[in-house]
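Annotated sample (chain length 378).
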Amino acid sequence: MAIKPVSVSQLNNYINRILSTDPILVNISVTGEISNLTRHSSGHWYFSLKDENSTVRCFLPRDRVKQLRFDIDEGMKIIAYGMISVYERGGSYSLNIKSIDVEGEGDLKKAFDLLFKKLSKEGLFDEDHKREIPEFPKTIGVVTSPTGAAIRDIVTTIKRRNPLVNLILYPALVQGPDAATTVVKGIEELNNNFKDIDVLIVGRGGGSAEDLWTFNEESVARAIYNSKIPVISAVGHEVDVLISDYVADLRAATPTAAAELATVDIAYYKDLINSCCPERMYYALKEKVYDKDNYIKNILESCNSSIKNLIINYSNELNLHKATIDGYNPLMQLDKGYAALKNEEGKWINSIKKVKVDDKVKVLLKDGELECLVLNKQ
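Output written by the structure step:
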């Protein structure tokens, strides 16, 4: 029995459904070399992955472009993770990419150079942006793994050099695809919620180029650049130099070196004080106290004089207001020999029209009242 013919659209739709439900093709990783890279104005990127014998089209949507851990370019060998999808209208399939890893030391170096050139052009490495590290910090923030050797070295070194320093640790991942996100969040959290932090140490211990790559990512570089707190970058060993080292306010060769750069050795200052002549220190301190005592006395005298002047001025102003108020008080006129009249209801009498013969009225004098009878009106 012949199979009923299908349309081209039906065929492509059927193939799409088959491919989109295959357990391997919906979550596949493909390695190859980038070719024909096109960065479209829409924000999407299109390119091909090729090996010695074949080529596959690739599509990187703009939201995934923004999440790239590093830039890519022609000729780079990568591992692309994603799923196979069919473009039904054109009858072709492509790899719809979710994420990318760079493969090989040479290509990692190329990705590093691309980002270095980009950030350098933007001014993220400029010396005039870098700030001084405080000489005597009271609180130091650390963004690193809570279980690695780096945090142990930092804590041991700081507590040995200056046990008075407070440490605040933000536990972060320091390698893997999600590490950059946690490092960025740590820098931002310590900036926004801990205003007493004087300096930040951001980093990790040694590892391979892939292990250290978190500190070559653009998001981490920008977080360090935007930090209001001065940042010491402390990644890997002395030979490891990463993007975070270039953008930070100070680069330390190791986490231990970062702890030494961030703190002073108080034992040095103790020895320095003990080596000074006690007699000279006594007289120097006495002179300081004498100067401060005179300074405080002068301030007190100035304050007392100002307060006295204020009291006199306010007293004069108060008397002036009192005299003005008294001038409006009708009862104050009684002291001058005048009298005031009220009728039996207690209302003031200010006209002869308000009284009649035989009315009883009260006469108010300065020292008492009289009750009188009206005998006549004129």
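Annotation: Residues 345 and 361 are 9 Å apart (CA to CA).
Annotation: The mean pLDDT is 87.
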